[in-house]
Amino acid sequence: MRPHHGLAALLLVLAGCSAPLASDTAVPGQASAAATPHSRASGVPADTGPEFDHRDPGDSRAALPDAISRALQTDALVLDCPEGVDRGRSLFARDWVGVHRADLDSDGREEWILNGLHPCLRQQADGHAYWWVYGGEEDAGTMQLLARALQGRVLEVLPGRHGGMADLRMHLVNGRGEPLQLDLASDGARYVPMGRLEP
């Protein structure tokens, strides 16, 4: 029995409707909406947490805690950069970093996620920002560095947890322009590559 041509044509049209939209194609320096199986752009809830882009200034009105500002003023990336020092004085300023907040340990208080915007805080060869993650409360004297100078274009908060903290995924691009990713997990004190955690 021969198939009905009308039914076959309808099935072809319906199959074409499920193709990705042109707006889902990758844009250099941004995470592609088509790169993850549950895209926010499609209206389907994502199975990961927030993502932060390497050029996103975040909340430009958020003042950095003094402890973080002091730490970045004396960070080796600032002090070793010709634009970072003048006559022995650090030139680090608030607008050198993008500031983002996310509750990584589910205690109701958001941690600080910073991405370098100034050239001194960016890896120029691959176009990666350096990233820092700080936790704790300055008023309580518990501010601590959880990750220093990670490199990447997008930092993604994952649903998995280690050491009481959400896992992170750093999206990178290698020298040949190929996308890579590095999964990070807390060892109870700092974020380290997931493969380095004790089993």
Features:
single chain, mainly beta, 5-stranded antiparallel beta sheet, 3 helices, globular
Rg over CA atoms: 21 Å
Percent helix, as a range, is: 10-25%
Strand order of the largest sheet: 1-9-10-11-12
Total strands: the figure is: 12
Largest sheet: 5 strands, antiparallel
N-to-C series of helices and strands: HEHHEEEEEEEEEEE
Number of helices: 3
Helical/strand content category: mainly beta
- Oligomeric state of this protein: single chain
Q: What percentage of the residues does DSSP assign to strands (E)?
A: 25-35%
Q: How would you describe the shape?
A: globular
Query: CA-to-CA gap between the ends?
Result: 60 Å
The poorly predicted ranges are 1-46
Average predicted confidence as pLDDT? 80
Structure in words:
There is one protein chain. By secondary structure, the chain is mostly beta strands. The protein has a domain of 103 residues. 13% of the residues lie in helices and 34% in strands. The chain is built from 3 helices and 12 strands. It has a 5-stranded antiparallel sheet, with no helix packed on it. β6 and β7 form a beta hairpin. The N terminus is likely disordered.
